[in-house]
Amino acid sequence: MKMIISELGILLSSGKVISSKNQFYLRLIEFFRIFLLALLLSFVSGLIILAFFEIFKIEKPVNVFLNSFRQKSWFYQIALACLYAPIVEELQFRLCLKYSQINFAAFSGIWLFYFLKRFMTGYGLFGEHNHTSLAIGLSLIIMGAIYSFLHEHRNVNNRLAEFCQKHYKVLFYISVIGFGFLHKTNFDSSFSTLLLTPVITLPQTSLGFMLGYVRLKYGFLYGILLHSAFNFFLLCFQF
């Protein structure tokens, strides 16, 4: 645990961490410790939020998403929280922490899907009233086009790689803060809620830091696994 905390301190200051080359069973032991640490940070963040609203006598914003989420079936909750959300959010925020052509193409495609799904209206590819299939189709096309472009234009790809390497620390913190702030959309859209975003999203921001650490230390799939395990643990208190 001391080594993990030490590496987290280095990551906090430099935005970098050395990849693990430990054997599988040692990785699992370290992973479990990181999972416990992520839960502890989330718990502490929750206490800070409670103290903030108690001290300043401010009404806590309504978590509209959570209220709606609790009305869904247990199967829907598990599928969304433990499968869909971890995969999509890790693609959005942590895949490109290690640059490659395919990573950048997938990162671009998943963000296009997010914006199309959120803001586009109309019919799907097969005439259905839900436009999800159209959003997926367009995103896959753009993803393939970006990958092909970078493969053909190596100079552009090299510049992107150099940019990511040069601004590594900034990009890491953008991923951490962006992940936290994205969860502001779970709450009501009032101006007062917007001002409180750094406070009400503190648990997600702290989780984003831990997920970034796992992604850089152990790889992308381990980040999805931690994200899924964390959400499943929280879900256990819903049932």
TrEMBL record:
Protein species of origin: Dyadobacter frigoris
InterPro entries per the UniProt record, alphabetical: Rce1/LyrA-like_dom
Protein known as: CPBP family intramembrane metalloprotease
Keywords in alphabetical order: Hydrolase, Membrane, Metalloprotease, Protease, Transmembrane, Transmembrane helix
Keyword Hydrolase: yes
GO process annotations (BP): CAAX-box protein maturation; proteolysis
Pfam families reported in the protein's UniProt record: Rce1-like
Transmembrane helix recorded as keyword: yes
Domain CAAX prenyl protease 2/Lysostaphin resistance protein A-like: 73-233
Any GO MF annotation of the entry: metallopeptidase activity
Entry's transmembrane regions: 31-53, 74-93, 99-120, 132-150, 170-187, 220-237
